[in-house]
Amino acid sequence: MNTAKPRELYHALLAQKLIEELKKRNMDGFYCEKKEDALKQILEMIPKDSLVSCGGSATLHELGIKPALKSDGYNFLDPDDAQGGKAKDAVAHQALASDYFLMSANAISLTGELVNLDGYGNRTASLIFGPKNVIVVAGINKVAPNLEAAILRAKSCAAPLTFLIFNQEYSSFDDLSKDAAEACSQLVITNYSVVKGRIKVFLVGENLGY
Known about the structure:
Strand order of the largest sheet: 1-10-7-4-2-3
CATH topology: Rossmann fold
Distance between the termini: 30 Å
Number of strands: 10
CATH architecture: 3-Layer(aba) Sandwich
CATH class: Alpha Beta
Helix content: 40-55%
Shape: globular
Low-confidence stretches: none
CATH superfamily: NagB/RpiA/CoA transferase-like
Largest sheet: 6 strands, parallel
Number of helices: 8
Strand content: 15-25%
Structural class: alpha/beta
């Protein structure tokens, strides 16, 4: 029995439903079955003379967007190129003036809300205000059936996994969950974009990020 076709169809139908919900919230939605297709479409969307920046994201890393932007000659402001806390802080502030800001979401409800937890706040700050365009890339694994489930996913799955990037010396799940919750204490729920089409959500029919 070939199980690939039903799974692909399910993902496409799920994405179609979510894109309809995003439209009601003044956000544009796109669906790509493969991450390579998403990468190609995103690069085609961004003019090369635009200032582009991003937030920290395992999804963007897996997508390969950073090396693509650098090798193709885009005007890319990469926070990872900054050395030291003051330099990174300066880049975070410069990113607020970018034409395109790239990020992922910790979770997306099937009703169209974006859910993000942030510690430092630069990623969610750029989502809320500043950049002219925000491109959110999310694997199909980030979709939750409702807002409550999306918040739970962000807190119980995305936050601890993200926290382990910076500190892997835990022997207790409870300690990890407590520290991750404190470090990602800023919860931002985006249920509407005041500027129509400013936020563009690319859904990918694969598991990406945390």
